[in-house]
Amino acid sequence: MKKVIYGIVTILLLSVLTACGSNEEDNNGVSAATKPGNASAGEGQPASGEHVLGSKPLKLTFYSTSGTLPDTEFKTLIADPIHAKYPNVTIERITPAATTTAEEVLTTHEPDIIYSTSTTHQQIIRTGAYEDLRDLIDKYQFDTSRIKPILWNYIKDLGKNGEIYAIPFNSNQHVLYYNKDIFDKFGVEYPPNEQLTWDQVLEIAKKLTRTDNGVHYVGLSVDNLTGLAKGLGLPYLDRETGNAAIDTPEWHRIFDLEKQIFDIPGYVSPDGVWDYGRDQFMKDQTVAMRVTWLANMVGPLEELRQQGVEFNWDIAPAPNFEDQLGKTREAQIQSLSINSQSKHKEEAFQVIAEILSDDGQRILSRNGRVPAITNPDLEKEYGLDIPVLQGKTVQNVFVGEPLQEHYFHPYENDISVRLTEAAEDLAIHGLDVNSAIRKATDAINKDVESLRQTIGQ
After folding, report:
1. Which of the four, 85, 130, 256, 342, has the lowest number of CB atoms within 10 Å?
2. Nearest in space to 59 (alpha carbons), one of 90, 20, 80
């Protein structure tokens, strides 16, 4: 009897030792069974991350420095999916006053995860708030090859010495939104499901720009000079010198097109309004066509729908110059970063890795964001879960090849106001294209000289 008991005990001990050996940790202290990138995690998926996120209550804070991310999207795309998979993890959004700058927020708060776009990447780099993610990428074997090259190449170009400051969240592409009710009102045929030239779009816009029963309708909104320039991937400043780079044949082409838009009879309103954007399309519903980013409109349109406001609109491919057909505008980088002051860097990275998993990116795609990863199957599911896109021609989102965003000089965001002023000069101050370019060039170069003295670089 003693021999039998001894044999059973021996077998149990061997079983325990074998089980322990199968979960032996590597040199980084990460269990091989749960290490991200391990085959057991599933193809294209990060591992569960429970070795970092654990089961203890954890609150991570989240701050958006730029870009459109309504609370509805924050919950649907980020906070709710993470909490569903890791019930112990809560992601709480920091929402400062609208007048508070990103620099002020980052000096008074320590958000764990930072959401940014190309308009603020260089600004945040200057604050030192971005953690260099290379060590975390290596430690958790995060597969960057899954990210679309035009997005990842832009991110790699941000660091002067190879630093990786962000992980792309989604590809923010451009489309042409159009208000069917306005087209119907004036008996104009809808834009087709193929890419039009700017000349073709201008002809449509002329038919839709008019005043009717005291309401001023505008045929086309394009995000002005900065929006149009994205169709050719044009920088505002010379990368090496930092001086204005807008006196070029390509930029002259952009200024000429902007001038043609402003010269449409009735485009500038009787009271001098010339700049039309999201509110005029979505709330006032007086803009017939708007060429802009997906993320700028889809989330806000869904929030408007939830408030009970709906109208008849659809999506067409973004237009371009005749010799550029087949290409659309630059795909804006919207990204996730980790605060260099965060006390939960590894946990925050695991959250980002989860959002970049196939499952995480599927949620984005089904709710109106183009995935950051290369996976055509996910794009087939685009918009399926967001009510505002039901019945829309969402396949037009993928007509044309988006361009990689140009390199944003550290001063570019600071001087962009000069291009808004240049557009106003064309619209209401009577300047011709050459004069507007010369004036803007002089103003930009003066700004750059001042920035060199105050910021350096």
Report:
1. 256
2. 90
Q: Are residues 206 and 294 in the same domain?
A: yes
Q: Verify that 269 and 354 share a domain, yes or no.
A: no
Task: Tell me, yes or no, if the pTM score tops 0.90.
Answer: no
Residue 36 lies in a domain: no
3-class state of residue 440 by DSSP: helix
- 25-30: long-range pairs with CB below 8 Å, 24+: 28/139, 30/139, 30/140
Largest CA distance in the chain: 106
With contact defined as beta carbons under 8 Å apart, do 142 and 36 qualify? yes
Contact partners, residue 266, CB within 8 Å, separation at least 6: 209, 210, 211, 216
Burial 314-332 (b: 16+ CB within 10 A, else e): bbbbbbbbeebeebbbbbb
Specify the CATH number for the domain of residue 433.
3.40.190.10
Mean pLDDT per 10-residue run, the chain (457 residues)? 40 37 35 34 42 86 91 95 96 89 87 94 93 97 97 95 97 96 98 98 98 96 96 96 97 98 96 95 97 92 92 97 96 96 96 97 96 96 96 96 94 95 97 98 97 82
CA distance 353 to 440: 43
Q: Give the number of C-alpha atoms closer than 13 A to the C-alpha of residue 270, restricted to the C-beta side.
A: 6
Whether residue 149 is found in the same domain as residue 69: yes
